[in-house]
Each structure stands twice: as C-alpha cells, then as structure tokens.
Write a structure and sequence with these properties.
- By secondary structure, this protein is an all-alpha fold.
- The chain has one domain.
- The chain has helices spanning 3-11, 14-52, 60-82, 97-126, 128-133, 138-145, 161-164, 167-186, 203-206.
- The longest helix has 39 residues, at 14-52.
Amino acid sequence: MSDAKTIDAAGRSPLGFVLCLSSTLLKVERVAVIGFMALLFGLILLNVVTRYTGTPIYWIDESAIYAVVWLAFTGASAMTRLRLDFSVGLLTERLPPRGVKVARVVATLFTVLFGVSLSYMCWIWMDPVGIAAAGFDAKEFAGQTFNFLYTEHTQTLNWPTWAVSLIMPLFAVSITLHGVANLIEDLDIVPRRVHHGFPMAHAEAAS
C-alpha cells in the first residue's frame, strides 16, 4: 500500500482522527507561542520604559512571569509533537535499526504515560467534580476539602489562581495527545507527517 493510500485509510479511522486533532492543536500552539513571545517582549519593553521614566507599573513583573510560564508549557507541548524535545543518544547510537525503533517506541510510551499521569494529578488537584458538587462556591469547597485553589488570587494582578494554573491540565492533555500521535507514527501505522510552519522540525534546518 502506498503512503498516500495509507494516510487516506488512516485518516478515516480513530487513529487518523487523533493525528488530525494533534496537527490542529499544533497549529493553535504555534499561534499561541508567537502571541506569548510578542506579549512577553511588550511587557519587558514597557517595564524598561516605565522604570526609566520613574513610573514603574507594579503588575508588569508578575504578568511577565506568567507569560513565560504559559509560553514554556505551550512550547514544550509543541516540541513534543515536533520531536524536538531533549533526548540522550548515547545508547541508541550503538543499537541496530530495529533496536533504535524499539527504543523510540518505548520513549514515546513514557511520554504518553507521563501525560496521562499528569492529567490524573491535575484532575485530583483541581477536582472539577468536587467544586461542582459545592455549587461552585469556592469557600464551601475549601472548607470541605481543604483545597484552597479556588479561593486564592495572584499577588498583584489579583487574578484567580485556578485560571492561571489552567496551563497545567492543558499541557497534560496536549502532551498526551501529541505523544499518542507520535506513537502511531513510531509504530509505522502511518508515515511521519511534515509539519509546515516549523522549519526547525527538520534536521536540515536544525543543523
């Protein structure tokens, strides 16, 4: 079966849906990374100008910190799908081609396992069922569970802590999805996809 027919057949299956969903998410992450980088640049520039003029804005520092956090997790998720995450090749460089393939599958399985575990921990931490059972009353929920996530606010922006922390479950779900997509390709169910708009995803551009 040719690559075109394989991709077409996979695209109509649940596995193909996962690949398409991963590719769509990757495009969203690309836009988000660009947006957060622009936001971070603007915040730093504004901070420099206001401090130089003697009128510093107190909430800029915290805004920049959260922009970096969201940028880092969003970028890490995209890098997972692009296979630009960190790896140690000391062992795989000495393995035969089949051993390299097995090692790659095992490594991808660990990525999926990490994503699933993190998703589970975020579910326990944010406890959407518990907060819903409490009628979305943050104080009532905190009194019952001693989980003060929904009652806390950031220091200077005064934003709800749970809203800022949403990047964690979003990252957990996205890295799981990208990990499964990578696993499908590593198992040779479908050929690897070329992701346009990411020149660093290709070895020639990265070298």
